[in-house]
Amino acid sequence: MTNISVRLPEKLLHNVDKLAQELHLPRAEYVRKALEVMNSEVSKQRRRTRLMEVSHRVRKESMKINREFAEIEHAPAV
């Protein structure tokens, strides 16, 4: 495991210590879990953004295809 050094505002560190103690966790474990949660949330948001982008592209293509079918349906029979 790798060590890191982080500077935190005293109020934030106080809150970390208070919550870690309430949860019966060492400070380092609490911070690790907090980082894991943040990483998970960022990954979920990125996935959500990619899905929305793809959805918009698919929607545009679908509307184009629907217009083409509509033109065929209203075209005179050959």
Name its key features:
rod-shaped, about 80% helix, about 80 residues, mainly alpha, 2 helices
Question: How is this structure best described in words?
Answer:
- There is one protein chain.
- This protein has 78 residues and is mainly α.
- The protein has one domain (10-74).
- The chain has 2 helices and no strands.
- The chain has helices spanning 10-22, 27-74.
- Helix 1 (10-22) packs across helix 2.
- The chain is rod-shaped, with a radius of gyration of 26 Å.
- The protein starts with 9 loop residues before the first helix and ends with a helix.
- The mean pLDDT is 92.
Spatial gap, N to C terminus: 74 Å
Oligomer type: single chain
Rounded to an integer, what's the Rg over CA atoms? 26 Å
Order of helices and strands: HH
Instruction: Quickly count the helices.
Output: 2
Integer count of domains:
1
Helix amount: over 70%
Q: How is the biggest beta sheet arranged?
A: none
Spans where pLDDT lies below 50 across 5 or more residues: none
Question: In a few lines, what is going on in this structure?
Answer:
By secondary structure, this protein is mostly helical.
Q: Strands, helices and their partners?
A:
Elements: H1 10-22, H2 27-74
Helix pairs in contact: 1-2
